[in-house]
Amino acid sequence: MEIIIQNTPQDAADIAASIIAKLLNEKPNAVLGLATGSTPLPLYKRLVELNLDWSQVITFNLDEYIGLPRDHSQSYHTFMWENLFRHTNIHPSNVYIPDGNTADIPKFCADYEALIIEKGGIDIQVLGIGTDGHIGFNEPTSSLASRTRIKTLTQQTIRDNARFFGTEEEIPHHVITMGIGTIMEARQNILLAFGENKAQAIAEAVEGPIQAINPATVLQMHPNAKFFLDIKSASRLKRKEYYNWVYSNKPEWQKF
Ligand code: F6R
User: Fold this and answer.
1) What's the pLDDT tens digit per position in 155-193?
2) Rounded CA gap, 4 and 49, in Å?
3) What are the tens digits of pLDDT across the range 200-244?
4) Hey, whose CA ends up nearest to atom 15 of ligand 1?
5) Which residue has its alpha carbon closest to ligand 1 atom 4?
6) Which of 3.30.70.270, 3.40.50.300, 3.40.50.1370, 3.40.50.1360 is the CATH number of 2-255?
7) Are the C-beta atoms of residues 198 and 12 closer than 8 Å to each other?
């Protein structure tokens, strides 16, 4: 695991963006796994500023609410088109986002998994983290081997996401999410976390034991996982001086 701590969310997101930009330059038909929510916004802003060629890029989103109309202001379809895709030259047929209105959820989920494999697997998966440690919408106690499936949001996640909807009542209780096993198959995982309210989940994910009660802890088992943090989300890490030391001592050839 690599822990990169920066003064501001934008500083951290800019470095993450440079890794994605390098991939797209080297592999124009790269497969990206993408997240929604407030955390990836500075990353998407920077990616747009970089004016990259997305014409062959394929994307798979982590999750979507069940039952929300696709064009609802808070659907993850709307989020992705508003905040990233419409500012790029991505081909709409290369964009895959779980269909929260599918008639057959298990079949949809199995097909989504098969499609990821058919497209060559995910090169870089972008992740946020919930205050309860969820990645995707794999809530605490999710199987660490889980695949794409329906999940029930925790009450804490519903409270956390009420800021987007205005009221808790409007938030669907169910989602389709890639599984933890699916996320672990990405060749690289880039997790972003900003703000004091993520500090506890991050301390557990980086320095705690691997446990389904904090699904992000599983990334300790991933061969290429990077955490991009601001000072606030890193505030409860016991070894942050060491992580900063490692980053400032990176050999030239290893720099992002
Ligand atoms: C969203 C997702 C979630 C969020 C997490 C943090 O696609 O997969 O895991 O990353 O809920 O959300 P924010 O960034 O809004 O704090």
Assistant:
1) 999 999 999 999 999 999 999 999 999 999 999 999 999
2) 22
3) 999 999 999 999 999 999 999 999 999 999 999 999 999 999 999
4) 37
5) 128
6) 3.40.50.1360
7) no
